[in-house]
Amino acid sequence: MTEKIVDLYDSSYRTYDKWYDDNKFAYISEVEALKRVIPKKGEGLEIGVGTGRFAAPLGIRYGIDPSRKMIQLAKKRGVKTQLGFGECLPFADACFDYVAIINTLCFVENPRKTIAEAHRVIKTNGKLIVGFIDRDSFLGRTYRTAQSRFYEHANFLTVEEMKQLIEGVQFSLLSFYQTIFQLPKKILSVDMPKKGYGTGGFIVIAAEK
Question: Which of 58, 64, 133, 149 has the fewest CB atoms inside 10 Å of its own CB, making it the most exposed?
Answer without folding.
Answer: 149
